[in-house]
Amino acid sequence: MLIGAHVSSSGGIDSAIGRAVDMGADSVQVFTQSPRTWRPTNHDPAAFDRFRERRDEAGIDGVFCHALYLCNLAAPKDDVYDKSVAAMRNTMEVASAIGADGVIFHVGSHLGAGMAKGLERVLPAMEQVLELSDDATWLLVENSAGAGGTIGRSLDELTTLVDRLDHPRLGVCLDSCHLYVSGIDVTDRATLDGLLDDLDSAIGFDRLRALHVNDSKAPLGSNRDRHENIGDGLLGENLGVFLGHPRLQDLPAMLEVPGADGHGPNAEEIRKAKEIHARWTK
Q1: How many of the other CB atoms lie within 10 Å of CB of 56?
Q2: Rounded CA gap, 132 and 209, in Å?
Q3: 249-281 CB burial, b ≥16 within 10 A, e <16
Q4: How many degrees, rounded to 5, is the angle at CA 266 between CA 265 and CA 269?
Q5: Residue 141, φ and ψ in degrees, nearest 5
Q6: pLDDT given for residue 96 in this prediction
Q7: 102 has which bridge partners?
Q8: In the chain, which end has fewer C-beta atoms inside a 10 angstrom radius, N or C?
Q9: Please, which contacts does 182-187 make with residues 24 or more away whose CB atoms are closer than 8 Å?
Q10: pLDDT at 148
Q11: Strands (E) located in 31-158
């Protein structure tokens, strides 16, 4: 398993590789622009080349870009929808430029309009983004925690998206915390076995391209997206069931935990994740 983390790209997107190396990360996830604004970053094209060079030098095997949390491809309002599609397209363009393995995104919420109406917005938006993907850089739908009218809260909803689009470069990213709070107990081996079997039959295991590894502050089935540091939440040591599952090995697995100071993952969190992984794969 390629255990890594979401890291800051402040100072230039290529700077993320150095931060990942300093943390002891084997994979890395970045934002391609500030997560707090719609305005895209005007990247220096030379930074894309430096990113690729530094990645090769560091031997980082998994690189992913995470789309803005502001994005809502199911938004009923045209202004939010149009800005979301534009931001997603920009993220895919930057991801392809740095040679990332994928763009990970949350579908968004239909805000009460209903699943059918939400899909009428989501599917053509995803088609636009997929047009910009390539064989190296896929589009990955992340499972949601399930609050409100969010889309992607269940395997059935992820399967609907994959089936309706039927695109060769559309994959999924599974988040341990989101699975847990949406009612799937990833600390129970039989439950996790069943989920992965169902994923294989419904979507195809080859479409599972990345993992998010997060402990949870919120209880099972609560639909509350509250990440906790590794080993400090309700999953605790039993996060090892997810980290150590034989079918999940060799996948990039990135931490999105708050860290000791609330500024995100650090070397200590990666160390703890690797230690739990080692205990559960003996």
Answers
A1: 11
A2: 18
A3: eebbbbbbbbeeeeebbbeebbebbbebbeebe
A4: 80
A5: -85, 125
A6: 98
A7: 64, 138
A8: C
A9: 182/143, 182/144, 182/145, 182/146, 182/153, 182/154, 182/221, 182/223, 183/146, 183/220, 183/221, 185/220, 186/235, 186/239, 186/241, 186/242, 187/235, 187/236, 187/238, 187/239, 187/241, 187/242
A10: 87
A11: 62-66, 102-105, 138-142
| d(C-alpha 173, C-alpha 252), whole Å | 10
pLDDT at residue 116, rounded to an integer: 96
At residue 115, what is the residue type?
M
Can you give the residue ranges of every domain in the chain? Answer: 2-280
237 neighbors 274 (Cβ within 8 angstroms):
no
Q: Which of 4, 11, 103 is nearest to 51 (CA)?
A: 11
Residue where the block lists tokens 């009218």: 149
State how far the Cα of 282 lies from the Cα of 273, in Å rounded to an integer. 15
Q: 142 near 211, Cβ under 8 Å?
A: no
Determine the Cα–Cα distance for residues 30 and 11; give it in Å rounded to an integer.
Answer: 13
Tell which CATH architecture fits domain 2-280: Alpha-Beta Barrel (3.20)
What is the DSSP code (8-state) at residue 247? G
- Specify the pLDDT at position 264: 96
The dihedral over CA atoms of 179, 180, 185, 187, expressed in degrees to the nearest 10, equals 100
Could you tell me which of 55, 34, 56 has the C-alpha nearest to residue 43? 34
